[in-house]
Amino acid sequence: MIPSDPHREVIDPRRLVRDHGREALAELVASESGYIFQLRPLKDLCQSLKSGMPLLAEGERGGGKTEMVDALAHSCNRPCFELQGMDDLTLKDILFEWDGQGQNNFVVQAVTAQELTLRDARQQQWRREFLNLGEILKAYDYLAATGIVPIVKLDEFEKLPQVCQAFFYQLFTDGHASVPRLTENNGHIGVGKSDEKPIVILTSNNQHIVHAPLRSRCIYTKVRLPTDHEEARILHSRVPLAAPGLLTQIVKVVRYIRVMMPTVRDKPGLRESIALLKAFLGDGIDLLTAEVIDDHLGFIARGPDDLANLELGLARLERAAQTPDAIIEQMVEQVFSEKVIRLREAA
Length: 347
What we know:
Elements: H1 13-20, H2 22-33, H3 39-51, E1 55-58, H4 65-76, E2 80-84, H5 91-94, E3 96-98, H6 100-112, H7 118-124, E4 131-133, H8 135-146, E5 151-155, H9 169-174, E6 176-178, E7 188-190, E8 199-204, H10 212-215, E9 219-222, H11 228-238, H12 244-260, H13 270-282, H14 290-295, H15 304-312, H16 314-322, H17 326-337
Parallel strand pairs: 1-8, 1-9, 2-5, 5-8
Antiparallel strand pairs: 3-4, 6-7
């Protein structure tokens, strides 16, 4: 769990949306983290917050799905439980696992000391103290114990083994997990059918992997890749000290790679654009030449083949950066002149 910052105000995003609307949430997140919502995901996130249902956010890599969750947790200063999708996750990582060694030690010690009969000791070994909770069930138990609503981030959910998706059905529907043999609370851990549940957001890059029974338990949203204008606004929001000229060159270069370099398979997303702009700013760069871009290719390339193809295209990237483009230049000028952060318009 990533705890709240004790020196910052804790904000309830559900109450904020109910009392002041989705624009208030968008403005809070933009001002605190620099993240700018697309309108469609903002609408769906707010419905998820109000209903208590998880949000399933799908879209291509680089659209800002993971950053949306991180920005929400940071801006509202909420504790965050995280689970990264991986092929080898099991029940113990998500829900629970009995501490077999601890149970055996308890039985042996209790019987040896003649404190309990063997039968009673075996019954008591299924108490809560011998149960180790997985990261997701911990979030529900944390809320039940403290009354503090945490955020749960299930990142790259499509990478979880298919059998693991069923582990979430009861949690998302009933607000608790049933633990066989657990003696306390009717074998349930969680908040039950309470109006207050953890704020759960699942992200996925592949819409064909998340199964229908899980989808039916979620609010769905699509996070698309940003337009040039949107990307410029995001870059300015995240790296406000970068000059218009440098930001303009970044937008040109990234767009050129995405559109005009088909041999680069793993296209740079928002994360790469932001990291690249921060690096240029930190190095005092104001003009993107082939040599400068070459020095920073590690921020863009995500594999040996892409790196080789980018190296072959350095001269073209320099031309893309330095060739005048009235549309992009006017767009960046507009971004820098904006006084109020607005939502990204839906396509």
